[in-house]
Amino acid sequence: MAHYRGSESKREQFRRYLEKAGVLDSLISVLVALYEETDKPNNALDFVKLHLGAADSEPASAEALRVEVAELQQKCELLMEENKELRNRLSQYESPPEEGAAE
């Protein structure tokens, strides 16, 4: 019976360790996400691996990508405006096509 209590104590220590490290919360959130999926994936293990692997790195990289997208959209808008302005300036220097030139 003493052996059982000793191993139970180790189990409890391990459980507290997992809790403190956030492992239990991560596992629970991934399993809840899998449960809430309307179209269940063919391979549940791949789903768990994908979501656990991305859990730590996703927020930082996702935010960096959002910032980059916003900057690129802004740059694209500026370039489109510049392109429009340059086309207008170019059209001022081009002569209109002559009607008899094509014949």
TrEMBL record:
It is found in: Nucleus. Residues 62-89 form a coiled coil. One of its GO terms (molecular function) is transcription coactivator activity. CDD domains: ZIP_MycBP-like (cd21937). Gene3D superfamilies: 6.10.250.1060. It comes from the Eukaryota. Keywords: Coiled coil, Nucleus. One of its GO terms (cellular component) is nucleus. Its main location: nucleus. Belongs to the AMY1 family. This is MYC binding protein. It comes from Myripristis murdjan (pinecone soldierfish). The lineage of its organism: Eukaryota, Metazoa, Chordata, Craniata, Vertebrata. The gene is MYCBP.
